[in-house]
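Sequence in, structure out. First:
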Amino acid sequence: MSKLYTMDDVLSVMKKKAPRRSKRIENAIDKRVERAYYATCSGIAIDVMDIGKVFAFGRTKVLAGEDDAALGASIRAYVETIRKN
């Protein structure tokens, strides 16, 4: 009989195998997105549930190779489509 694995078992093994470098890179990308968001979208009201969408959009733009100015402009354009007021 084989051992049953839970999702926690699988995730703990994945965390042990994952290099720490990927975590640092993800943090650096998130910091770039955060800086661009706060620099260009400060004061714009959006729904709390849309913050994750903005960060996901920003991550795709960073991975596409956009510089900080283009990143800020593209995030601003995206936020304009989902803003509340």
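Second:
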Amino acid sequence: MRMSIRHPLRKLSNENWKRYGKMRYRVEQLFGSIKQKIGSGFKLLREDLARKASIACAILWNFWVLATYLFLLFLSGILHYSYAKGCGRFLEQPHTSGEKFRRVGNLLRKQFWQ
């Protein structure tokens, strides 16, 4: 006995909720993080300047996240390099003779699969 939605804006809102409702928490989390870093509002009188400022803040936020991920990637590369160098597994040169190369290859395979 429920009545259907009559107003067109309510229908559009209901369709958008069905389509994008699962991703709402991601958007809310993003805006919450930006508000914590920058603030909840801009003290500007003109709406166009406030819109430009908010877009600039979103772009700066994206650069901040990108720089953080690149730094962590760089740091993990350095740690992996130092670990591999410390274990003696960094840039191992294969032997030129076939017999030694086969022995070393077999040893490395055994170490890898253990």
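Remark: The chain is about 75% helix and 0% strand.
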